[in-house]
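Q: Here's a chain of 223 amino acids. Please give me its 3D structure as C-alpha coordinates.
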Amino acid sequence: MSIRANSWAKIFLLASYCIPVVQAELVWEQKSIQLDVHPLQVEARTAFHFTNTSTEPVDILSVQTSCGCLKAVADTNQIMPGATGSVAVTFDFHDKTGPQRKSIAIRSSDTPKQPALLYVEANIPEVYTLEPTRLEWSLTGDLEPKVCRLVNHLHDPIRLVSVSSSSHQFTAELKTIREGFEYEVQICPVESAIPGLAVITVQTECPAELPESRDYTFSAVLR
Protein backbone atom coordinates (compact mmCIF):
# COMPACT_ATOMS: atom_id res chain seq x y z
CA MET A 1 0.00 0.00 0.00
CA SER A 2 1.33 3.44 -0.89
CA ILE A 3 2.09 6.05 1.76
CA ARG A 4 -0.81 8.19 0.47
CA ALA A 5 -3.29 5.33 0.54
CA ASN A 6 -2.13 4.35 4.00
CA SER A 7 -2.68 7.92 5.23
CA TRP A 8 -6.25 7.96 3.88
CA ALA A 9 -6.96 4.63 5.58
CA LYS A 10 -5.79 6.04 8.92
CA ILE A 11 -7.95 9.16 8.47
CA PHE A 12 -11.01 7.04 7.65
CA LEU A 13 -10.37 4.81 10.68
CA LEU A 14 -10.04 7.80 13.02
CA ALA A 15 -13.21 9.38 11.58
CA SER A 16 -15.17 6.20 12.13
CA TYR A 17 -14.42 6.36 15.85
CA CYS A 18 -15.90 9.85 15.97
CA ILE A 19 -19.23 8.87 14.40
CA PRO A 20 -21.76 7.73 17.02
CA VAL A 21 -23.40 4.40 16.15
CA VAL A 22 -27.12 4.42 16.77
CA GLN A 23 -28.85 1.03 16.66
CA ALA A 24 -32.56 0.93 17.31
CA GLU A 25 -34.17 -2.47 17.28
CA LEU A 26 -37.51 -4.10 18.07
CA VAL A 27 -37.17 -7.61 19.42
CA TRP A 28 -40.25 -9.86 19.07
CA GLU A 29 -41.12 -12.51 21.66
CA GLN A 30 -42.31 -14.73 18.82
CA LYS A 31 -42.88 -14.30 15.11
CA SER A 32 -45.31 -17.16 14.56
CA ILE A 33 -48.46 -18.12 16.45
CA GLN A 34 -50.42 -21.35 15.96
CA LEU A 35 -54.09 -20.98 16.89
CA ASP A 36 -56.13 -23.77 18.45
CA VAL A 37 -59.52 -23.59 16.70
CA HIS A 38 -62.86 -24.98 17.87
CA PRO A 39 -64.81 -26.61 15.00
CA LEU A 40 -67.57 -23.98 15.27
CA GLN A 41 -65.34 -20.97 16.02
CA VAL A 42 -65.77 -17.97 13.71
CA GLU A 43 -63.10 -15.65 15.10
CA ALA A 44 -59.88 -15.79 17.12
CA ARG A 45 -57.81 -13.07 18.77
CA THR A 46 -54.15 -13.11 19.69
CA ALA A 47 -51.21 -10.70 20.00
CA PHE A 48 -47.53 -10.39 19.14
CA HIS A 49 -45.36 -8.72 21.81
CA PHE A 50 -42.12 -6.79 21.32
CA THR A 51 -39.47 -4.78 23.18
CA ASN A 52 -37.34 -1.85 22.05
CA THR A 53 -33.89 -3.07 23.13
CA SER A 54 -32.03 0.01 21.87
CA THR A 55 -31.24 3.41 23.31
CA GLU A 56 -33.34 5.26 20.73
CA PRO A 57 -37.11 5.53 20.13
CA VAL A 58 -38.57 3.33 17.38
CA ASP A 59 -41.63 4.34 15.34
CA ILE A 60 -44.14 1.90 13.85
CA LEU A 61 -44.52 3.12 10.25
CA SER A 62 -47.11 0.65 8.91
CA VAL A 63 -48.91 -2.61 9.67
CA GLN A 64 -50.11 -4.64 6.68
CA THR A 65 -51.82 -8.04 6.56
CA SER A 66 -51.84 -10.54 3.69
CA CYS A 67 -55.61 -11.11 3.83
CA GLY A 68 -58.76 -9.13 4.54
CA CYS A 69 -59.72 -11.84 7.03
CA LEU A 70 -56.84 -10.71 9.27
CA LYS A 71 -56.81 -7.42 11.18
CA ALA A 72 -53.73 -6.20 13.03
CA VAL A 73 -53.33 -3.04 15.12
CA ALA A 74 -50.26 -1.84 17.06
CA ASP A 75 -51.04 -0.53 20.55
CA THR A 76 -48.62 2.39 20.09
CA ASN A 77 -46.91 4.19 17.21
CA GLN A 78 -43.71 5.04 19.10
CA ILE A 79 -41.78 2.78 21.44
CA MET A 80 -39.32 4.40 23.80
CA PRO A 81 -36.02 2.71 24.75
CA GLY A 82 -36.66 -0.32 26.95
CA ALA A 83 -40.43 -0.10 26.48
CA THR A 84 -42.67 -2.94 25.34
CA GLY A 85 -45.68 -3.03 23.06
CA SER A 86 -47.93 -5.39 21.15
CA VAL A 87 -49.78 -5.90 17.89
CA ALA A 88 -53.33 -7.15 18.46
CA VAL A 89 -54.58 -9.59 15.81
CA THR A 90 -58.11 -10.71 14.91
CA PHE A 91 -58.57 -13.65 12.50
CA ASP A 92 -62.02 -14.09 10.89
CA PHE A 93 -62.75 -17.76 10.06
CA HIS A 94 -66.29 -17.39 8.65
CA ASP A 95 -65.69 -18.72 5.14
CA LYS A 96 -62.53 -20.74 5.74
CA THR A 97 -61.64 -24.38 6.39
CA GLY A 98 -58.40 -26.36 6.41
CA PRO A 99 -54.80 -25.18 6.99
CA GLN A 100 -54.34 -21.40 7.02
CA ARG A 101 -51.17 -19.31 7.13
CA LYS A 102 -51.50 -15.52 7.05
CA SER A 103 -48.75 -12.93 7.41
CA ILE A 104 -48.37 -9.47 8.91
CA ALA A 105 -45.66 -7.07 7.73
CA ILE A 106 -44.54 -4.55 10.38
CA ARG A 107 -42.49 -1.70 8.97
CA SER A 108 -40.66 0.31 11.65
CA SER A 109 -38.10 3.10 11.70
CA ASP A 110 -35.27 0.78 12.76
CA THR A 111 -35.61 -1.32 9.57
CA PRO A 112 -37.88 0.63 7.19
CA LYS A 113 -36.83 -1.37 4.11
CA GLN A 114 -36.99 -4.79 5.78
CA PRO A 115 -40.35 -5.23 7.53
CA ALA A 116 -40.66 -7.76 10.33
CA LEU A 117 -42.82 -10.64 9.09
CA LEU A 118 -45.18 -12.24 11.59
CA TYR A 119 -47.29 -15.33 10.89
CA VAL A 120 -50.64 -16.57 12.19
CA GLU A 121 -51.43 -20.22 11.49
CA ALA A 122 -54.56 -22.27 12.08
CA ASN A 123 -56.11 -25.53 10.97
CA ILE A 124 -59.85 -24.90 10.73
CA PRO A 125 -61.87 -28.11 10.92
CA GLU A 126 -64.46 -28.77 8.24
CA VAL A 127 -67.57 -29.90 10.10
CA TYR A 128 -70.50 -30.06 7.68
CA THR A 129 -70.45 -30.54 3.94
CA LEU A 130 -73.47 -29.41 1.92
CA GLU A 131 -74.80 -31.16 -1.17
CA PRO A 132 -75.80 -29.37 -3.31
CA THR A 133 -74.84 -25.78 -2.48
CA ARG A 134 -77.35 -24.33 -4.99
CA LEU A 135 -80.96 -25.30 -5.67
CA GLU A 136 -82.70 -24.04 -8.81
CA TRP A 137 -86.26 -23.88 -10.17
CA SER A 138 -87.83 -22.51 -13.33
CA LEU A 139 -91.20 -20.76 -13.48
CA THR A 140 -91.97 -22.86 -16.52
CA GLY A 141 -91.16 -26.09 -14.69
CA ASP A 142 -92.10 -28.01 -11.56
CA LEU A 143 -91.99 -26.03 -8.28
CA GLU A 144 -91.81 -29.09 -6.03
CA PRO A 145 -89.59 -29.04 -2.88
CA LYS A 146 -85.89 -29.75 -3.23
CA VAL A 147 -83.39 -30.89 -0.59
CA CYS A 148 -79.90 -29.87 0.55
CA ARG A 149 -78.17 -32.58 2.58
CA LEU A 150 -75.73 -31.65 5.39
CA VAL A 151 -73.32 -34.25 6.78
CA ASN A 152 -70.97 -33.90 9.77
CA HIS A 153 -67.66 -35.71 9.13
CA LEU A 154 -66.25 -35.32 12.65
CA HIS A 155 -66.46 -37.90 15.42
CA ASP A 156 -68.26 -35.52 17.79
CA PRO A 157 -71.89 -34.52 17.20
CA ILE A 158 -72.59 -30.92 16.14
CA ARG A 159 -76.28 -30.05 16.32
CA LEU A 160 -78.05 -27.97 13.72
CA VAL A 161 -80.91 -26.10 15.35
CA SER A 162 -82.69 -23.89 12.82
CA VAL A 163 -82.90 -22.69 9.24
CA SER A 164 -83.89 -19.35 7.72
CA SER A 165 -84.37 -17.87 4.26
CA SER A 166 -83.35 -14.36 3.24
CA SER A 167 -86.44 -14.19 0.98
CA HIS A 168 -90.12 -14.75 1.80
CA GLN A 169 -90.44 -16.35 -1.65
CA PHE A 170 -88.96 -19.61 -0.35
CA THR A 171 -90.00 -21.79 2.57
CA ALA A 172 -87.28 -23.66 4.46
CA GLU A 173 -87.62 -26.66 6.79
CA LEU A 174 -84.88 -28.42 8.74
CA LYS A 175 -85.23 -32.21 9.13
CA THR A 176 -83.07 -34.37 11.40
CA ILE A 177 -81.82 -37.61 9.84
CA ARG A 178 -79.23 -38.46 12.51
CA GLU A 179 -78.96 -36.06 15.43
CA GLY A 180 -75.68 -34.15 15.36
CA PHE A 181 -74.44 -35.81 12.18
CA GLU A 182 -76.91 -35.69 9.30
CA TYR A 183 -79.69 -33.30 8.34
CA GLU A 184 -81.77 -32.27 5.35
CA VAL A 185 -83.07 -28.82 4.53
CA GLN A 186 -86.17 -28.83 2.36
CA ILE A 187 -86.66 -25.69 0.25
CA CYS A 188 -89.73 -24.82 -1.81
CA PRO A 189 -90.79 -21.67 -3.71
CA VAL A 190 -94.15 -20.28 -2.58
CA GLU A 191 -97.04 -20.31 -5.08
CA SER A 192 -96.82 -16.56 -5.73
CA ALA A 193 -93.03 -16.55 -6.13
CA ILE A 194 -91.35 -14.44 -8.81
CA PRO A 195 -87.81 -14.89 -10.18
CA GLY A 196 -85.21 -14.19 -7.52
CA LEU A 197 -82.49 -15.58 -5.23
CA ALA A 198 -82.45 -16.44 -1.54
CA VAL A 199 -79.60 -17.23 0.84
CA ILE A 200 -80.54 -20.15 3.08
CA THR A 201 -78.78 -20.10 6.45
CA VAL A 202 -78.54 -23.12 8.74
CA GLN A 203 -77.65 -22.28 12.36
CA THR A 204 -75.58 -24.51 14.62
CA GLU A 205 -76.00 -24.92 18.36
CA CYS A 206 -73.56 -22.46 19.93
CA PRO A 207 -71.24 -23.97 22.58
CA ALA A 208 -71.16 -22.17 25.93
CA GLU A 209 -67.47 -21.29 25.51
CA LEU A 210 -68.04 -19.38 22.25
CA PRO A 211 -69.76 -15.99 21.81
CA GLU A 212 -71.11 -17.13 18.43
CA SER A 213 -70.85 -20.20 16.23
CA ARG A 214 -70.41 -21.01 12.57
CA ASP A 215 -73.42 -21.00 10.24
CA TYR A 216 -73.79 -22.82 6.92
CA THR A 217 -75.28 -21.21 3.83
CA PHE A 218 -76.45 -22.24 0.38
CA SER A 219 -78.55 -20.57 -2.32
CA ALA A 220 -82.02 -21.09 -3.77
CA VAL A 221 -82.79 -19.59 -7.20
CA LEU A 222 -86.04 -19.22 -9.11
CA ARG A 223 -85.59 -18.27 -12.75
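Q: Can you summarize the key feature?
A: The longest helix spans residues 3-18.
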